[in-house]
Design a protein that fits this description.
- By secondary structure, the protein is an all-alpha fold.
- The protein has 20 helices and no strands.
- It is a multi-pass membrane protein.
Length: 452
């Protein structure tokens, strides 16, 4: 179907409103990098407790990712995002009034449920609402908003650093949470969800508003047996078809690939790492802004090129850059203690790593997960893939500081580089190119490749 100015405008509005979930995701994962410097002495926390408080968000996120897709199948993508926005509001306020480490950990876990759910449902919602020729850019807008949210968190942390008011740092996320609820209230659900509920007229109407047909979303050819698909559980479909199981496994590994080089070790702990090599606490908070600015610029670049360079090729470029950056960082960080110039070089190498990650690795992994998981098991499959991503994220957050204490910062960065080489081998072997292809075409190739 031909795109018009009206459909293009609608597609941009849909993606922008839904991507507010990404902004919240970014803010709540990034805010602890600075807040932790003030929370830790107030609660007399050691490295293990610091890792625990940070990682409890990710425990909740793992639960939210696993259940969010299935809730989105049951209640709708739109309603799931509305509920997620409400949890963001309540969870942020709970964090702000926490009086103990245990209470803060519980609040972060509750907040994490929303983070995990929106991390899966936002790409799902956008990929099912926009045409294939702009799907890469529109879905990647979610990734861009994640890094905007992280930068916003760093700026809030820096503004409040002189006061040490970590309560306000954590509580500020309630504002965009409320905006997400209001924005999603005025949008329709996706054609895929309407079709699976048997509302084919509504599905066609919603697809047409975005300049699409149902066939582009891998729906039209199954209209006749849609009832049987809706009656059969996604678990049954997964057990019945080998290619679906392998596809979900590949999607899980894509999620792990995003985390395996330790991106969130830098996102969460860059100020802590700078503080450990002699940078003052207040200046360490400001170094996070460098990471945030580079993230936003790099992600914007990735947003512009993802539909031209290709998902698979861009992911390979990003992982290669990650490995090179980590090896250089391992060498520099070894000599950074007490040497301001070398410490700044280490920060520059962290920023270089983040540039490759946010321009290439993060946008392509979220995008590939949303494109590879077939429509017939979409909620369950994306939930399982998201669970793998968040478990890997949790492992990095929980064990990074203890690993630094055990292996040193340099040794830990070398370990991440080796894992990056493993990720490169996986992508080369198993990931197909999806750029410019409809969900129907991608599903057909996966079935031909894995159903043997």
């Amino acid at each position: 179907m031909k795109q018009t100015d009206t459909t293009r405008r609608y597609v941009r509005i849909v993606a922008a409103v839904a991507a507010l979930g990404g902004l919240l995701f970014g803010y709540d994962t990034g805010v602890m990098s600075g807040a932790l410097l003030f929370i830790s002495p107030e609660f007399d926390m050691g490295p293990t407790e610091e890792g625990w408080v940070t990682s409890m968000l990710l425990v909740g996120a793992a639960v939210g990712a696993l259940t969010g897709g299935q809730i989105a199948d049951r209640l709708g993508r739109r309603m799931t995002l509305i509920i997620g926005g409400l949890i963001f509001v309540l969870g942020s306020l709970w964090c702000a009034v926490a009086l103990t480490v245990l209470m803060l950990g519980a609040a972060r876990t509750f907040l994490g449920v929303a983070v995990g759910a929106v991390s899966i449902v936002v790409p799902m919602y956008i990929s099912e609402k926009v045409p294939g020729d702009v799907r890469g850019k529109m879905v990647s807008l979610n990734t861009f908003m994640i890094v905007v949210g992280q930068l916003l968190a760093y700026l809030v942390n820096s503004a409040l650093a002189p006061t040490g008011n970590w309560h306000l740092m954590l509580g500020m996320a309630a504002v965009p949470g409320a905006i997400l609820v209001v924005g999603m209230w005025f949008l329709a659900d996706t054609p895929v969800w309407y079709a699976r509920r048997g509302r084919l007229d509504k599905a066609r109407e919603t697809a047409a508003r975005a300049g699409m047909t149902l066939a582009e979303l891998d729906i039209e050819d199954r209209v006749g047996d849609g009832a049987s698909i809706s009656r059969r559980s996604e678990w049954q479909a997964l057990k019945a078809h080998r290619w679906l199981r392998i596809t979900v496994l590949v999607a899980m590994c894509i999620g792990i690939t995003q985390q395996i080089t330790g991106v969130n070790a830098i996102v969460y702990f860059a100020p802590t790492m700078m503080n450990q090599v002699g940078i003052s606490t207040e200046n360490s908070v400001y170094t996070a802004i460098v990471i945030g600015v580079v993230s936003v610029i790099a992600c914007w670049v990735g947003l512009q090129i993802v539909d031209r360079v290709g998902r698979r090729r861009l992911l390979l470029i990003g992982l290669t850059g990650n490995v090179i950056s980590l090896i250089a960082l391992a060498v520099a960080y070894r000599f950074a203690d007490g040497n301001t110039a070398v410490a700044m070089l280490s920060l520059a190498l962290m920023a270089l790593f983040i540039a490759f990650q946010q321009a290439a690795v993060s946008p392509t992994t979220w995008l590939l997960i949303s494109e590879l998981v077939p429509v017939k098991i979409r909620g369950l499959g994306m939930g399982i893939a998201g669970l793998a991503l968040w478990v890997a994220n949790w492992a990095v957050a929980q064990f990074f500081l203890p690993l630094v204490a055990l292996l040193s910062g340099s040794g830990t960065f070398v370990m991440f580089a080796v894992l990056g080489i493993v990720a490169l081998g996986f992508v080369r072997t198993f990931i197909p190119e999806t750029t410019g292809r409809s969900l129907e075409e991608v599903g057909r190739e996966l079935k031909e490749r894995f159903d043997r």
